[in-house]
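User: Okay, second chain of the day. Same drill as before: sequence in, structure tokens out.
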Amino acid sequence: MRRFCVLIALASALGAQPRYDLLLKGGHVIDPKNGIDRVMDVAVSNGTIAQVAENIAPSDAKKTVDVAGLYVTPGLIDIHVHVYLWQDLKGEGVQADAFSFRSGVTTMVDAGSSGWRTFPDFKARIIDRSKTRVLAFLNIVGAGMGTGKEYDKTEMDAEAAAKTAKAYPQVIVGFKSAHYVGPGWEAEEGAVKAGEMTGLPVMVDFGRINPKRNINALFLDKLRPGDIYTHCFSGHREELVASGKLNPAMAAGRKRGINFDIGHGGGSFYWYVAVPAYEEHFYPDSISTDLHINSMNAGMKDMINVMSKLLNLGSPLDQVVSMSTWNPAKEIKRRELGNLDQGAAADIAVLRIDHGNYGFVDSAGAKKSGNQLIVCEMTLRAGKVVWDLNGRASEDWKSFPYQKQSWTHVK
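Assistant: Same drill. Structure tokens below.
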């Protein structure tokens, strides 16, 4: 009888344990995949989304964070970054964790910094050691980007690229062609061939154009539906025609199923292209930064700054969030990302919209004024708070259980 009572008491105690590890309470949830755009609560347990619902009881959670007045979205996905740091620290790569979480980004996709020859080093030294989820578009050039090999046709090996992608299916999400100056289509055709062999998409940073190499031929003859044209507002490839209107090839490409990505970077986003495109109702499918050591301190700044630019151009917030979460997840065929599905990894961004007078700078250094600025208050990666701008998930210092330690001075 005594043993039975002990078991009942134990079961009662276990039953009283909170169901959730963390509860985000009272925020405006925007989850484009699931059509959610209203005030709801988000509960997290064991690193995954446990529930998204109205009025979840705080008593059900070990910790409750008040996010009323803020926006709760899936963790942001930046599908065009450069985070491969070479061993000699040359190049333009940025350390992923040093930049991702503070702007709400939980997934970064390196866009061709490594190729089929250098990817194993990238994975071992960078990807496997990053708290940020780092995926990759594999450069069709074996040596990767910025190596002086980008114009070397002997480095463009579709079979080797496809073989590497098949060896790392959890990480490699597609192929990248970048900066090729032609006169032919070797780089783009090689990337597409690798894509055909693996069922993966291609991202193209289109190089120099000529009478044969132009975006009309690229969109209608070379790329496939589902492939990605990055730097879509760069103006370098005649995205605008002489009259200042959008090149009809852009609309034709979209109709064919090409995805258009921002890829802001240090030289690929200009107001003189973006404003006319918006006036003609041509909006990007995905927002990305083209993060590298030069773009981060120039007009681009970070993911939420680029998102703010499109918000001020006229895209509603729910569309800006979709361009930064669910749309890129679909583009890279990772539909388990970019949403708040029950059971999905608890990658979450908590955002604030400030209102005032702000200046947004393009890649040339030209400013356009706006009145809305997106700020990242908090980021969760796999259920853990990895960025907390104002300590919303922290305990006040007066009641905080400090672990006081004795420090011995060592000379």
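Residues 2-15 form the longest helix (14 residues).

User: Thanks, on to the next one.
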